[in-house]
Structure formats: C-alpha cells, structure tokens
Amino acid sequence: MSGLDLDPTQLDRYSRHIIMDDVGPDGQSALLDSRVLVLGAGGLGSPIIQYLAAAGVGTLGIADDDEVELSNLQRQIIHGDDDVGRKKVRSAKEYVNGLNPDVDVVTHELRVTPDTIEELIADYDFVVDGTDNFETRYLVNDACTLAGVPFSHGSILQFEGQITTFAGTDDSPCYRCLFPEAPPAGMMPNCATAGVLGVLPGTVGCIQATETVKSLIGAGELLDGELLFYDALNMEFDRVEIDKQDDCPVCGDDPEIESVHDVEYSASCAIDVSGEDETEADAIEASD
Q1: Once rounded to an integer, what is the mean pLDDT over residues 188-214?
Q2: CB 52 within 8 A of CB 31
Q3: What would the pLDDT profile of 204-250 be if each residue is shown by its tens digit?
Q4: Would you give the DSSP letter of residue 248?
Q5: Cα(76)–Cα(196) distance, rounded to whole angstroms?
Q6: HSE (CB half, 13 Å, CA atoms) of 223?
Q7: Suppose 222 and one of 8, 165, 208, 287 were both cysteines; which one would form an S-S bond, judging by CB atoms 3.0 to 4.6 Å apart?
Q8: CB distance 236 to 245 below 8 Å
Q9: Cβ contact 243:173 at 8 Å
Q10: In what order do the strands lie in the sheet with 126-129?
C-alpha cells in the first residue's frame, strides 16, 4: 500500500498523522501494512493494544491464555465488568473491532513456550512484550534476538516502570546484555504480591506503543541501547545505557545459545547444561 491508496475515510481517520512531516501518507500506509504481536493483554498490553489499534497497525496479533478477573479492572482498561471470566484475547479483539475496522486482530490463545514461540513471532514485523515473569521475558528475548525480530520490553511494579527497545540489528544489545540470568526465585516481588499503581501501566505501555510506531515508520531515535526508568511517585525519568556485551550468551561474539531449546526457562533462565530440551515454559501472564 502507498499513500495514494488511502481511501477518503482513512484520510480523515488518520489526518493528524498524515499532516505530520515525519509520518505523512507513506508512514500511515506503512502502519496499515505492518504486523505487530503483543504478548499479554493485561496492564501493559491494554494501552499498547489501544494505541496501536488507533494508530492503524494493520495486523495486530494478541497472545494471552488468561481470563479476565475482577482484580484486573483497576488497570487493564480494555476489559470491563462484563468480561470477567472471559478469555482476555477475546475481550481484546472485541475492543479493537469496535475501535478501528482497519485492524485485523489475530488472537493466539496459547502458552508461549520454546515449542511455540518461533512459529509465533515469524509472522510479525515487531513484538511488544507486556508479560510479567522472567521466564517469558528471557524466552522472548532469545527467540527475537536469534530471529532478528525487533521488540519492545516493559515492566512495572508499584510506582516504577522501565522500558527499552531491542532493534534486532548486529550492533544492538539484547536483554541478556543487561541481565545475563534471572534473579533467584523469590528474590523479586511481583505485582500480585507488592501491588501496582493502576495508572502506571498506562504510561509505560504508551511509551512501548510509541517506540513500536516509530520503529514501523522509521522516525526518530529508539531506546535501542538505553533503558528508560520511570518513577511515578516522584515524577522522574532516568536513562541508563545498555552496552552490547561481547560475551553475551545469545548476541555476543561466540554465543552459547543458538536455539531456545538450549535454555531451561525456569529459575535462572540459564543455558541447559544437561543437554535436555525444555518442553514447556510458564504461561504468559499479562503484565499486572
């Protein structure tokens, strides 16, 4: 699709994009031709899905196997009271269908495991990680890095969030450059036990959506090589550089991880020294 192919309704719907020099009709057409996979339809996934759908991302994949719970509604704003007990991917699809008919929603009601992730991400131009457990984060990092698929990472807890983008180029770092292995089990609290400010995922998810759109249209500078910290309590943002590590086990000069089946995605998410393939990782848990 080119800018000349936009119909009158699309020219009206996306007019505020089209008049921007850095987007324009060609940028909007690029969005309509794009395929983005959102992992998690919860706290982070909700604003990500909202804004990518509104922006006109043509194919929006949503992967989650959770059901909507009443305690989700304080922050997971694409779901409502009537959705409690329903699968999140179905509720999310209905929301997007009501927001923008240009968007084709592909639902993936499944567990993301080493056996499913490679085929899952192969159909998409960009992946947005809105999950809340280390096992899935490392699995997403390893699969996307090995496949050269760019992805956005976001995480939240209480009043704090962090965001970065891994561009998938030869010069880009990956999540393991920052955290080679996961912290010991039980060392880090999660939202279910420590809580989260309801509006926090809105800010973090919107930044992830912004990074996604910029990547798809080739505008501006991404958070590639930088981790953005957000402190909502004191309204502060800080940036930390992420250096590409020569000894990174997945993107370094002599990588030890050549397949997601080389890693045991539990505990430390370290290389599987036993030589046995891990058959199933924990389910995606939509980020709270």
Answers
A1: 89
A2: no
A3: 999 999 999 999 999 999 999 999 999 999 999 999 999 999 999 99
A4: -
A5: 12
A6: 23
A7: 165
A8: no
A9: yes
A10: 104-108, 59-63, 35-39, 126-129, 151-157, 160-166, 226-231, 236-241
Paired tokens of 187: 């060392």
Q: Is 144 a catalytic residue?
A: no
Continuous segment of H or E residues that includes residue 182:
none
Report yes or no: 151 and 174 within 8 Å, Cβ to Cβ: no
Structure tokens at 43: 């706290």
Confidence of residue 97 (pLDDT cuts 50, 70, 90): very high
Structure tokens at 144: 């996307």
Per the CB < 8 A criterion, the answer to whether 204 and 42 are in contact is no
φ, ψ dihedrals at 107, nearest 5°: -95, 140
Q: Which amino acid makes up residue 194?
A: A
Q: What is the DSSP letter of 233?
A: T
CA dihedral of 271, 156, 224, 26, whole degrees rounded to 10: 120
Under 8 Å CB-to-CB from 205, ≥6 apart: which residues? 43, 44, 45, 46, 47, 48, 51, 130, 154
Who's near 27: CB < 8 A, 6+ residues apart? 17, 20, 217, 218, 219
Find the catalytic residue in 144, 174, 177, 191. Answer: 191
> DSSP class of residue 93?
H
Look-up: residue for tokens 């848990």?
285
- Alpha-carbon span 105 to 89, nearest angstrom: 10
Q: Residue 90: which residues within 8 A CB-CB, separation 6 or more?
A: 107, 109
Res. 160: pLDDT tops 90: yes
- Displacement of CA 231 from its chain's centroid (Å): 20
Give the Cα separation of 110 and 44 in Å (integer).
18
Report the pLDDT value the prediction gives residue 32, as an integer from 0 to 100: 98
The amino acid present at 20, given as its one-letter code, is M
How far apart are alpha carbons 223 and 230 in whole angstroms? 14
